[in-house]
Amino acid sequence: MSPVREGLSAVAGEETFWARYTRARISRRRALQAGSIAATGAAAYALAGCSDGGSSSTEDPRPGSTVASGGADRPDLLNSAHPARAGGTYVTANSATFGTFDPHIGIATASAYFPRVYNLLLSQSPTRPEFTYLDLAEAFETPDEQTYVFTIRPGVRVAPNDLGVEERDIDGEDVRATLERIKTDSLTNQYSFASKYVESVTVDGASVTLKLTEPYAWFIPRISSYYNTIPPRELLADLSKINGAGAGGGPYRVFSVSENDRAIFQRNPNYYRRDDATGEQLPFIDELDVRVIFERNTQRTAFVDDQIQQYWPGDGREARSLGDVPIARDPVFSYISFCMNVDKPPFNDPRARRAVSRALNRQQFVDNIYAGDAQPNGLVHWPLGAYALPPDDLAATYQPYDPADARALVDALGGLKLPMIYPSETTIWEHDKHFPIFVEQMRGGGIEVEAQPLAFVTWISTFFDRQYDTNLALNQIYETPELPLLMHETNGPFGDGTYLIGLGDAEVDAAVAKANTTPDLDERIEAVLEAQRVIYSKDPACLPLVSPYQYIAYSRRLKNIPTGIGTTQWSLSTMWLDG
Questions:
Q1: CATH superfamily of this structure's domain 336-548
Q2: What DSSP state is assigned to residue 396?
Q3: Bridge partners, 137 (sequence order)
């Protein structure tokens, strides 16, 4: 296979949310198993949304925005302006505390800054898999489907620090130390990935060779996770140093942290990268000042008064109410789904599963909860682009809304009742708004819902143990189709029967396995589409509903904001401040 070099690409993206939310209150084993797909969800949600609900509109919410389209293989630029100028302090706010700066353990606000302090080998955009940002690796090649050889970039130099780390180049031994830790330490966020798929890591000069245990379609997206950033190995030898501080070869270093108040990041004068247009050393912005502000109204006031330069509106209407400011509008990779336990009759009968599917009117969720600012999901949610089945095919063929057909199926079954657990007292992803609409839709299809509300911790434990008939479930942030497809595999997403299981169908299992082991991008897209068609032919037991959009508002003074590439934007440092 051909080597991949600067500006080119290879595969496609993933990440997620669930039990990290309640890690402190449920067993470590359960949290870690959920966390294997929860890897980036908590932080991504907290830092790229934090929405507490509200409706939106399909109308473009960006009256003050100028967007330079980057195309499929590069980011768009919001509020594009040239030439750039250096200097200034970028002030923003988050509604969660920082947590640890240990890049392999942290899950709170600090995690969004891991790629700004440390380095990734590379970051492939989850939304545009054609765009791969090469960072510590200046090139890589795949001699075979189980071997990846990364060429380490010279001159990626550790920032000045008082942590006892020499200002030296990050090298292959740092990569090996990181992957060996992730592979062997079950407390790390990416342990389930690395322990299963990384067989060995060898270093030969500037080359780092990773051998996989088996072909894995999503290796590049997984290694792109910001939980796989590479700190100097000296810090891994003494983890106490990176609880509230950090320094690596990224564009910034942690200058100071007050856990419940503020973190200051200062530019790394040793940073290797230069701006393509001007040749100037990056980053342009001297300092990042990150405040903790828990109240949304306080954040909004601070943004309007230009005390902070970034704010997350709750919806499109609020975004437009902010006036002439740049606003990014991006899809949310999470969703709510309805899951049936096929071990519990009558859900082992395809007619029961089909009746529920026919009674679902996803467009009603789009219209009533999001005022049109969302889209219906198939088995693979629409934010994943080419991996998702076309909307017209979903509506006409695979999951049509047909309450009359649902009632006929229910009559043939002699009635259908759904004993349904769900997490009560939560507004995450507007779950509380989905519930009454879902119940009413089932009634329209002749299906009775027996509601079983549970406290969040009890719900997730019941979900884990699969002690439910049906479940109106929160799902994590998925940035590849891997886990959404594995939900339909015989032993479920983790292969151990926890949370949910598939239909026990050999044809489904084979189709899902093919999708998750096909390295070639074009071939994998078709395999993912075909796997969904096969699952639909068997009447799936897990039915995603809709995924909405989210918004981020920026100060007019902030220029060249990368958008459209998901969390890969956290690795870029070409933004600049005017005035």
A1: Dipeptide-binding Protein; Domain 3 (3.10.105.10)
A2: I
A3: 152
